[in-house]
Amino acid sequence: xxxxxxxxxxxxxxxxxxxxxxxxxxxxxxxxxxxxxxxxxxxxxxxxxxxxxxxxxxxxxxxxxxxxxxxxxxxxxxxxxxxxxxxxxxxxxxxxxxxxxxxxxxxxxxxxxxxxxxxxxxxxxxxxxxxxxxxxxxxxxxxxxxxxxxxxxxxxxxxxxxxxxxxxxxxxxxxxxxxxxxxxxxxxxxxxxxxxxxxxxxxxxx
Length: 206
Known about the structure:
The chain is mostly beta strands. The chain has one helix spanning about 50-60; strands spanning about 5-10, 25-30, 70, 75-80, 85, 100, 110-115, 125, 135, 140, 150-155, 165, 170, 175, 185-190, 200-205. The radius of gyration is 16 Å and the shape is globular. The chain starts with a strand and ends with a strand. About 40% of the residues are buried. Mean pLDDT is about 85; it is low at about 1-15.
């Protein structure tokens, strides 16, 4: 298995696995479960949420540091427009990361996020601000071959970075159809410190 260890700035890279906090919660999301609904609490695999928009609205509110969002295998969601999800908050060192995973709920193919539409500076996930302690793992991002200049499947930091970012881990992800054309800097995964802040202690694996 290939591992890429990333440090930006003057910080020694140390990445580990985080124990799950005693108060941490699990949330479930499915596009195929017959009992899916965004009106559920999302904490039962037999009554999951239905949409990516529900994850977005719950992030930092219902979903807190140490929590895990489980995407059901075989599911797919269409996410449209320019940057679909701007993430500016994450977990922390004491409670652990917020994790989105497609590894352990249901059976079948990796859950897939299908990003359609958009033009320049498109990102399916843009993790910035001072968001740290975030893990994305074991799902597929299809960028739809429509991304433009400065586009990426997952972008970490850059504008509007407002603090140091660390422990953003990307594990066993599939990112495809990044697109491009005459522009440069179309990336599946793009880390770039900005505004004098650092990006450190991050892991890309898989």
